[in-house]
Amino acid sequence: MKEEAKNIVILGAGESGVGAALLAKAKGFEVLVSDAGIIKEKFKTELFENGILFEENGHSMEKVLAADLIIKSPGIPNSSALIQEIRKAGITPICDIEFASRYTNAKLIAITGSNGKTTTTYLVHHVLESGGLKVEKGGNVGVSLARNVIKDEADYYVIELSSFQLEDMYDFKADIAILLNITPDHLDRYNDSITEYGKAKMRIIQNQTADDVFIYNADDKEIKKQLKSLEIKAQTFPFSLKDDTVEGGFYNDEDQTITIKNKLTMSIHDLALKGKHNVQNSLVAGISGRLVELRKENIRESLADFTNVEHRLEFVAKVNGIQFINDSKATNINSTWYALESMQSPTVWIVGGVDKGNDYDELLPLVQEKVKAIVCLGKNNSKIMDAFSDVVDTIVETQSPVEAVGYGYQFATKDETVLLSPACASFDLFENYEDRGQQFKNAVRSL
């Protein structure tokens, strides 16, 4: 960014956009926030109270193109007509993370992956905070990094990054970059190419030097494929559930081991998070903790007492011996695979929503093994019903969480589980996955 750049336009007025606007204002920029839709009242109030100009229901292109710098919402595709017009004018939009990172000297721990990144972000933050470090979390989850950077009181920022954000990051450098997995998701934005999607994810290691660290999943086929064409300058600490020779951490039958700076071994039964995918998340958090010199005992305690993220395999209640689990954040097949894999009792599975090109075949073995009934929750359930009608006898359709929970309670018996893990986006019936999860929890609590 040129020093004389003083006029910023921010496209999109969600948390990331408003956070960037507040930081830009604090740094002396002239700011215009422009949203194609209606701005939420809480954000509108915040912009108004801070004297930040905004417009909604459309963009004033003359003002947009007069900007020295444009920060765009990750939700706006680079293929859109709006961004194409901006690029033709010689302006390359950046994302809020790129902008925010220019105003902090804290260590940046960046986390991406198709699945598990929110849980891992919270878990790494918990481990570092429990170890006494001044740490904040943000990015694609919770409070935006830009909002945190206004006061800039942390020594470490743990940042969740989506591929959409990574697309618009150029100079950002992670001190510790973490790549959990690359599985099919959002492929509609990447010409149905997992290779293109993977390239966006790999941008997390751009600009890293020999002083930085790259933690990655050594078992992931797409990561291994991507790494073949890249020069890795950072120190690498892979983790694995199959290979006990890796230099970061591994899982072996009943234990997980962090191999950095004297081995740290911990029984998986002592981990707060259950399921093999959560062993991966715990390995990452343990590796991160050791890299920032935390004591082994601190890491053990924090991995044992962590409370999971809301809407991610979240225990809601036990009603007459039936356990209800909210996994509304599972918006793709891979996330739901992990959820079903971790079920320890016969399960009534609530599934459905906006299908993102799902191939349900890979769930068939798990569904056959774990699922006793399926409750569809969505406007169009035909694909789900076709996929599983041969392996599950009981499949019903519903249009509301109250109805879905009612069927779940009817089909499950004592010591069984009702799992909301939709494998789909939420926008057919809900505002977002949080709204879906909250309505599910409300329905459970009203039983």
TrEMBL record:
One of its GO terms (biological process) is regulation of cell shape. Pathway: Cell wall biogenesis; peptidoglycan biosynthesis. GO terms for molecular function: ATP binding; UDP-N-acetylmuramoylalanine-D-glutamate ligase activity. It comes from the Bacteria. GO terms for cellular component: cytoplasm. The keyword ATP-binding applies. Residues 311-424 form the Mur ligase C-terminal domain. It catalyses: UDP-N-acetyl-alpha-D-muramoyl-L-alanine + D-glutamate + ATP = UDP-N-acetyl-alpha-D-muramoyl-L-alanyl-D-glutamate + ADP + phosphate + H(+). Its EC number is 6.3.2.9. Transmembrane segments: none annotated. Signal peptide: none annotated. It is found in: Cytoplasm. The keyword Translocase does not apply. It holds the Pfam family MurD-like_N. Residues 111-286 form the Mur ligase central domain. HAMAP family: MurD. Cell wall formation. Catalyzes the addition of glutamate to the nucleotide precursor UDP-N-acetylmuramoyl-L-alanine (UMA). Belongs to the MurCDEF family. This is UDP-N-acetylmuramoylalanine--D-glutamate ligase. It comes from Brumimicrobium aurantiacum.
